[in-house]
Design goal:
By secondary structure, the protein is of the alpha+beta class. Helices cover 29% and strands 28% of the residues. It folds into two domains: 7-101, OB fold (Dihydrolipoamide Acetyltransferase, E2P) (Beta Barrel), CATH 2.40.50; 123-280 and 329-434, BirA Bifunctional Protein, domain 2 (2-Layer Sandwich). The strands form five sheets. Strands 7-11-12-21-20-19-16-13 form an eight-stranded mixed sheet, with helices on both faces. Strands 1-2-3-6-4 form a five-stranded mixed barrel. Helix 4 (129-150) crosses helix 6 (236-257) and helix 4 (129-150) crosses helix 13 (419-427). It is elongated, with a radius of gyration of 26 Å. The chain binds one RNA strand through strand 1, strand 2, strand 3, helix 2 and strand 12.
Length: 447
RNA sequence: UCCGCGAUAGCUCAAUCGGCAGAGCAAGCGGCUGUUAACCGCAAGGUUGGAGGUUCGAGUCCUCCUCGCGGAGCCA
């Protein structure tokens, strides 16, 4: 048998006889010709069977082969501009076909399907070109995240999923039973990261997090992946420099390594090519002014041309606010110094202006919303204890957390980046549910 | 939790004012040596989400329920 190769290496084998292992994605025929579009996980190629080149039985088998049948085919690789595929431009002139399994009638066709049908068939939907491309982009984004952090002095230290208490309130936690005691699925690893910086200086955790929010929007999942870096001896200004380098590396690496997949997704990559440091920075105060000027002028935001509502200083932004602000810039924008009252208890107040804190969110362009939330953390034990009291949190539960400020405390900062929102942004998707293989949403636990 | 929209063939949808349930695709059969979601022909495909009501007559109107979609709040 000729050597088995993967389709992404097809260009290296023009003129040679090779064997491919994969699945029949699409078939069309014209009399004595059968065109089989075959995918193998690395790409897609058109295989052409001419009746005169194979046995009568083999040609008939090919002619009646259902899509998604698994097969092994051998033939000669030929460059042909007409040939579709990933990469396109090559086809296999088939001389042998082995059907591994003839597929049952496949539920998913190439025509349109509704969301519910596709989600019910997620286990099959993932085979489609579009979902394949998204999973490949996601894998590259995850690798870029890890590579950048590993190459910039960060040490991965895993944080627990089962936790005894809430980090930031208790309304959105999934409760589980820990041998008779209430335990909760983690919604952040940050507090543990703050432990770990005192060991390794720069750390990150990377894993699934859980939010039992009753959120039903294109930006929310119940289970999502978050990378949370935390840095000792780092103040807010330095944190933002790290974040913009990090995000730019992720975008540029993905552009470079997954160009074919982004093209398949019809992503306009000119938006992504601009993503290089520095990112614009505006204060919360400035953002509120921008919003209210826009509201007074009757500005609207895409995609539905909603009017931008006015807002008072002190509130958090709604979705149209975020979309409007992000829309004023051609790259992600930092909004810093949010009101202390709307942010988590551990954020460092601005000296001389305690009503705002040393926090910054990063808003992605094109309406993708907040992809990073970060801040400088409180470093003084007494200030932290006062904040814990002010938020009505039990001191006992946070004793170990306050201890970190008693034994060699330093300024330190960190942030969390939501992987699925980042994937949705880079891929240009209109819903986050396609960014993870098996999304867990408000009304979706299976498959 | 709240607001809005929806559920008809395996899939995507149509059905006028309340008056015979209809297309495309898929699956089946036949044809074609360059198809790109091929095309042409034939044949087949229905408990209109569920329960009740109004009516001579309900896919269509009313009530309740179930499920889904979009959004709000909250967040990454």
């Amino acid at each position: 048998m000729s050597p088995i190769i993967r389709i992404d290496k097809i260009a290296d084998h023009v003129g040679q006889e090779v064997t491919l292992q994969g699945w029949l994605q699409l078939k069309t025929g014209k009399g004595k010709l059968q065109f089989l579009r075959v995918r193998d996980g690395s790409g897609v190629i058109q295989a052409v069977i001419f009746k005169g080149n194979v046995s009568e039985e083999m040609f008939e088998a090919a002619k009646r082969l259902p899509i998604e049948s698994s097969l092994v085919i051998s033939g000669t690789v030929r460059a042909d501009e007409r040939a579709p595929g990933i990469p396109g431009g090559f086809e296999l002139d088939v001389n042998a076909l082995e059907v591994v399994q003839e597929s049952a009638e496949y539920p998913i066709g190439l025509k349109e399907h509704g969301v519910e049908f596709l989600m019910d068939h997620r286990h099959l939907w993932l085979r489609s070109n579009r979902q394949w491309a998204i999973m490949r982009v996601r894998a590259t984004i995850v690798k870029a995240i890890r590579d950048w952090l590993d190459n910039n002095g960060f040490t991965l230290v895993d944080t627990p999923i089962l936790t005894p208490s809430a980090a930031e309130g208790t309304t959105t936690l999934f409760k589980t039973d820990f041998h008779g005691e209430d335990a909760f699925l983690a919604q952040t690893g940050q507090l543990y990261n703050e432990v770990n910086i005192f060991s390794v200086g720069r750390t990150y955790c990377f894993g699934p997090t859980f939010r039992a929010e009753k959120s039903k929007t294109r930006r929310h999942l119940q289970e999502f992946w978050m990378v949370e870096p935390e840095i000792a001896f780092c103040k807010l200004e330095e944190l933002l420099e790290i974040e913009e380098q990090f995000v730019s590396y992720i975008v540029q690496t993905t552009l470079h390594e997954r160009a074919a997949e982004l093209k398949l997704l019809e992503r306009d990559t000119s938006f992504l090519e601009r993503i290089v440091p520095p990112f614009p920075r505006i204060s919360y105060d400035e953002a509120v002014e921008m919003i209210n000027r826009a509201a007074a002028a009757g500005a609207t935001v895409p995609p539905n041309d909603e009017p931008v509502p006015a807002m008072e200083w002190g509130g958090d932004f709604g979705a149209p606010h975020e979309t409007y602000i992000a829309g004023q810039f051609d790259r992600p924008v930092f909004v810093h110094h949010y009101p202390t009252a709307v942010k988590a208890f551990y954020m460092e107040p601005e000296p001389g202006r305690p009503e705002v804190c040393r926090s910054a969110d990063l808003l992605a362009p094109e309406g993708y919303g907040e992809i990073i939330g970060g801040s400088e953390r409180m470093s003084d034990p007494d200030v932290l204890l006062a904040a814990i009291d002010r938020h009505g949190l039990p001191r006992e539960a946070y004793e170990w957390y306050v201890d970190l400020r008693r034994y060699g405390s330093t300024p330190h900062s960190g942030f969390g980046l939501g992987v699925e929102r980042t994937v949705a942004w880079i891929c240009g998707l209109d819903h986050i549910r396609e960014t993870i293989a098996f999304p867990r949403m408000l009304n979706r636990l299976r498959p």
